[in-house]
């Protein structure tokens, strides 16, 4: 799993218990999944279709640095399915795991459209040399 994004847990990210608010963390995950899908599918128009059970394993505190990992598990006709893990950067302790996040590729008409992708590609693989 590749961990591309890091976030610093700040006071505004906390819930009344003084730990990272789950809604904030889910917002970060959704954004990360969308960005990852945008890049892989080479399309800015992708939407979240599905998130499976969310397993909160541990909490994050103010000042913690967390990192969000995404791994592609399946390319569908018009979708991309990933799994996600968020962990504490310093301790490597898992904070949350989501087994399935499905993003759908949209066409200009706003409807699901085939993307033609079958494997993970990196930007360097797309550049002509």
Q: In percent, how much strand structure appears in the residues?
A: 35-45%
Class computed from helices, strands and strand pairing: alpha+beta
Q: What fraction, in percent, of the residue positions are helical?
A: 10-25%
Number of domains: 1
**Span of the ends, CA to CA:** 28 Å
- Number of strand segments: 6
Write down the secondary-structure element order.
EHEEEEEH
Task: Please give the largest β-sheet.
Answer: 6 strands, antiparallel
Question: How is the secondary structure organized here?
Answer:
Layout: E1 2-8, H1 22-41, E2 46-51, E3 54-56, E4 65-75, E5 79-88, E6 94-105, H2 123-126
Which tags fit this structure?
single chain; 129 residues; alpha+beta; Thiol Ester Dehydrase, Chain A; six-stranded antiparallel beta sheet; 19% helix; 38% strand; elongated
Could you characterize what this model shows?
By secondary structure, this protein is an alpha+beta fold. The chain has one domain (2-118): Thiol Ester Dehydrase, Chain A, CATH 3.10.129.10. The chain has helices spanning 22-41, 123-126, and strands at residues 2-8, 46-51, 54-56, 65-75, 79-88, 94-105. The protein is elongated and about 45 Å long.
């Amino acid at each position: 799993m590749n961990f591309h994004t890091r976030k610093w847990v700040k006071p505004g990210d906390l819930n009344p218990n003084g730990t990272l608010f789950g809604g904030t963390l889910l917002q970060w995950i959704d954004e990360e999944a969308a960005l990852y899908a945008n890049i892989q599918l080479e399309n800015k128009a992708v939407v979240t279709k599905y998130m499976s059970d969310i397993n909160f394993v541990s909490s994050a505190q103010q000042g913690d640095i967390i990192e969000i990992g995404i791994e592609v598990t399946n390319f569908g006709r018009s979708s991309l399915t990933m799994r996600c893990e968020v962990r504490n950067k310093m301790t490597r302790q898992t904070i949350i795991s989501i087994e399935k996040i499905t993003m759908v590729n949209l066409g200009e008409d706003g409807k699901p459209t085939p993307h033609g992708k079958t494997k993970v590609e990196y930007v360097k693989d797309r550049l002509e040399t």
